[in-house]
Amino acid sequence: MTTDATLAADIDATCRLTGEFTLRSGQVADTYFDKYLFEAQPALLDRVAARMVDLLPDGTELLGGLELGGIPIATMVSAKTGLPALFVRKRAKEYGTAKLAEGPDVSGRRVTIIEDVITTGGAVRDATRALRELGATVEVVVCAIDRSPEGEDPLADVGLEVRSVLTRADLDAARG
Ligand SMILES: O=P(O)(O)OC[C@H]1O[C@H](OP(=O)(O)OP(=O)(O)O)[C@H](O)[C@@H]1O
Ligand SMILES: O=C(O)c1cc(=O)[nH]c(=O)[nH]1
């Protein structure tokens, strides 16, 4: 098990923006965690990925990184574990291989989704349904930041367990 006592404070100091932000869900928030600001820093990305390795469920066969922000994280976790990565598009490409999930075939494989931020769970829900339609078994998402309302289980409706490196409460508590 990796311990990283300052990760929450370091991510918060790097990523927290304040202002008025329209989120993917259409919600308007006064706080935004810009994941690209930690993903762009290899040492921080490495620390987040190290924590994710500990959170991966046994039996994971493929790491499904969601476009766009989940992809660098999934790649780093893949490098640490040797598990193959998938690069999961929001929409299938309309030419060439026309794939939604780039990389190995997912049919019959156990995919753990790797995501950057969860707010309502909408993006992860869409990807879960799409991967299941392709024949994957999807039971767990590992995310860097879970900012969904405390005590709620945003993906229970699709039977998905959320495992997060950091919650909104962790980031608020670590705020300098
Ligand atoms: O839980 P939700 O309410 O769906 O919100 C979280 C999603 O919103 C962002 O996606 P966006 O499309 O903005 O991200 P990208 O920059 O990774 O493409 C974020 O990366 C999550 O995928
Ligand atoms: O819900 C979102 O769209 C969202 C929230 C957030 O804090 N960071 C992010 O990248 N997306």
TrEMBL record:
Pathway: Pyrimidine metabolism; UMP biosynthesis via de novo pathway; UMP from orotate: step 1/2
Protein EC: 2.4.2.10
Coiled-coil spans in chain: none
InterPro entries tied to this protein: OPRT, Or_phspho_trans_dom, PRTase-like, PRTase_dom
Residue ranges constituting the Phosphoribosyltransferase domain according to the UniProt record: 62-148
Source species, domain of life: Bacteria
TM region(s), chain numbering: none
Record-level Gene Ontology MF annotations: orotate phosphoribosyltransferase activity
SUPFAM superfamilies the UniProt entry points to: PRTase-like (SSF53271)
EC top class named in words: transferase
CDD domains listed in its UniProt record: PRTases_typeI
Catalytic activity entry: orotidine 5'-phosphate + diphosphate = orotate + 5-phospho-alpha-D-ribose 1-diphosphate
Binding, orotate: T119, R147
Keywords: Glycosyltransferase, Magnesium, Pyrimidine biosynthesis, Transferase
Protein residues bound to 5-phospho-alpha-D-ribose 1-diphosphate: R24, R89, K90, K93, E115, D116, V117, I118, T119, T120, G121, G122, A123
Role according to the record: Catalyzes the transfer of a ribosyl phosphate group from 5-phosphoribose 1-diphosphate to orotate, leading to the formation of orotidine monophosphate (OMP).
Recorded family membership: Belongs to the purine/pyrimidine phosphoribosyltransferase family. PyrE subfamily.
Subunit relationships: Homodimer.
Alphabetized PANTHER family for the sequence: OROTATE PHOSPHORIBOSYLTRANSFERASE, URIDINE 5'-MONOPHOSPHATE SYNTHASE
Protein name, as recorded: Orotate phosphoribosyltransferase
Organism name: Nocardioides pini
Taxonomic path: Bacteria, Bacillati, Actinomycetota, Actinomycetes, Propionibacteriales
Gene: pyrE
